[in-house]
Design goal:
Strand order of the largest sheet: 1-2-3
Shape: elongated
Oligomer: single chain
Helix content: 40-55%
Structural class: mainly alpha
Radius of gyration: 20 Å
Number of helices: 7
């Protein structure tokens, strides 16, 4: 068995939790006169797959990736005159704010530039 397999089999699976990050929406903080923050978390592989082919992928990523507040809350949806959580998100946030939240969720989900560390190529080159 390879050393890498041995390492994978030693991982405490309870430590494989989804990363979270709290971010402030500056425009809403200014409107409200107090900090307005949302808590984002990484998506699971299944949640990410569910985004494929949706008509509102950015909004759906925010719905799945923001755990506080809960944008599927019916009171929030109705307050903003929406029928769906995606419509409520469009009413609450500017397009750039949605894109910024998508970036945070994507980074937490491992799509960021710092998700992996490149190491020097250790393969040997064959002389011609």
């Amino acid at each position: 068995m390879s050393n890498k397999i041995d390492l994978l089999l030693k991982v405490d699976k309870n430590k494989l939790t989804r990363p979270e990050q709290e971010v402030e929406i500056k425009r809403l903080s200014e409107i409200l006169g107090e900090p307005f923050t949302v808590t984002c978390q990484a998506l699971t592989a299944d949640e990410f797959k569910e985004l494929d082919g949706t008509k509102t992928p950015n909004e759906d990523m925010v719905i799945k990736g923001v755990i506080d507040p809960d944008f599927t809350n019916q009171q929030v949806i109705e307050y903003y005159g929406a029928v769906t959580a995606a419509e409520a998100i469009d009413a609450i946030f500017l397009p750039g704010e949605i894109t910024s939240l998508v970036k945070v969720i994507s980074d937490l989900s491992g799509f960021g530039t710092d998700a992996i560390k490149e190491i020097k190529n250790s393969s040997t080159q064959v002389a011609k």
